[in-house]
Write a structure and sequence with these properties.
five-stranded antiparallel β-sheet; about 10% strand; 19 helices; about 425 residues; about 55% helix; single chain; alpha+beta
Length: about 425
């Protein structure tokens, strides 16, 4: 894989890269329609593959928030064609790394000396490269270490990237009105937090200490003396990424259930016990040890859950409140899904829509056990997603609805569900109910 000596950081450079990517996509469409005229075939799989590759090739050179968005989209397996999911999932830990010279320059800038001086050994070739930074092996005093280095200019490009994306998002989600900025501010703030490795160090130490009693769960130790806002040092953890584990044959249902149970219990503990959660549950953030322990290795994206959101959000998940129209309507108002300006028709429409959604997405909470491999559950999600996408009436409604806290809370649950689906896990959901009793 080629290495990068520089990354576009200013708005003009990054916009130019996106424009050149758009030109390639236009060419793909021209070829597709040309072949369609000649052959009469209407197979879009090749078009999706070409577009997904060209988009990813452009984003992986930009890195930062542009690539982070691709990473987030890779988890939307029910909303995107498979070609996009496969390409964008590479953003989790497989993108072009920085060159050795740029790695050394970054270490000198933030840790004050060449890596060979600071550490006993240091591999300038990265082991994993993702959207915000890349990881290098090192040793010090007999300890095996992982040193994460942030890509230069990532934090400075976040605002400009969002300015480029904003007009597209406004059209896609039909956002209108003066309050739309709250959603973009929430995303920008979270992305900026992910570029502050001091904050990640504090979150990592806090959550790993608080959750150390959860069975079958491991965390690395962290080293403040080799950590700065742009470098983060922790133990090197032996194991394979969760995405690799789920592809391997030979693991029993019991072993998959054990890992799935650990994931579920860990997330329920964070959400209900700590009121803060690692809101980026994708396979690149978890590993599996040789003894089948779950290893959590990334706490860059932490969502604090305010009490005035937490209470109605989980009240909304209760079966009795979903079916009680008065209670359900009241909760939708508190959570800013129903607006004071809604007409009776709009209010009725969104109540019906969210009842349908909540009846499906809260199923794991309504039984003592849940099978995340159940094809009926995932087919229902796919069908509902398709139904919403094709609903012309929904496109005419003001999409500026819901508390800003929905963005990362919903992302957390969708990501968790998908990880459990990949594991084909059958779990006990009792860890959810014990916090609400």
């Amino acid at each position: 894989m080629k290495t990068l000596d520089s990354i576009p950081t200013n708005k003009i450079e990054r916009a130019s890269k996106l424009i050149s990517t758009g030109v390639k996509i236009g060419g793909n469409y021209l070829r597709y329609y040309g072949e369609k005229l000649i052959t009469g075939e209407n197979d879009t799989s090749k078009l999706n593959q070409n577009n997904a590759k060209d988009i990813y090739d452009g984003l992986k050179e930009l890195k930062g928030s542009a690539l982070k968005i691709a990473q987030m989209l890779s988890m939307e397996k029910n909303l995107m064609p498979q070609a996009y999911v496969e390409q964008f999932s590479l953003a989790q830990f497989s993108v072009p790394p920085l060159s050795g010279a740029l790695v050394k320059k970054t270490i000198r800038k933030y840790l004050g000396a060449d890596p060979e001086v600071i550490f006993d050994t240091f591999a300038t070739q990265s082991e994993n490269a993702a959207s915000i930074g890349q990881v290098h092996r090192a040793t010090k005093n007999g300890k095996k270490l992982a040193v994460k280095i942030q890509y230069p200019g990532v934090a400075n490009s976040i605002s400009s990237d969002l300015e480029i994306v904003k007009p597209i998002a406004l059209r896609m989600f039909n956002l209108k009105g003066k309050d739309t900025e709250k959603y973009f501010d929430e995303v920008e703030q979270k992305l900026l937090e992910e570029t502050d490795y001091i904050k990640e160090l504090e979150s990592s130490q806090f959550i790993s200490e608080a959750a150390k009693g959860i069975p079958n769960l491991k965390f690395p130790n962290y080293y403040p003396e080799w950590t700065t806002s742009k470098t983060l040092t922790m133990d090197w953890m032996e194991g394979i990424h969760l995405s690799e584990f789920v592809k391997q044959e030979g693991f029993s249902q019991e072993e998959r259930n054990k890992l799935g149970q650990t994931l579920w219990d860990f997330y329920m503990f964070q959400i209900h016990g700590l009121r803060k959660v690692q809101a980026d549950p994708h396979p690149g953030n978890f590993m599996v040890s040789s003894t089948l322990e779950l290893i959590a290795i990334d706490f860059g994206c932490i969502k604090k859950i305010p009490e005035d959101f937490y209470v109605p959000y989980f009240e909304l998940s209760k079966k009795e409140n979903i079916e009680d129209l008065a209670s359900f309507k009241k909760l939708l108002g508190v959570l800013e899904i129903l607006l004071d300006t809604d007409t009776p028709e709009e209010s009725a429409y969104f109540i019906q829509l969210f009842q349908k959604m909540m009846r499906l997405f809260t199923l794991p909470f309504h039984d003592k056990h849940f099978d995340f491999s159940n094809p009926e559950f995932w087919n229902s999600i796919s069908n509902l997603s398709k139904e919403f996408t094709e609903d012309s009436k929904l496109r005419q409604m003001n999409g500026n609805r819901g508390s800003k806290h929905f963005i990362y809370m919903n992302r957390t649950f969708f990501g968790l569900y998908h990880l459990l689906y990949d594991l084909k896990a059958q779990i006990s959901t009792e860890a959810f109910r014990k916090y609400l009793s």
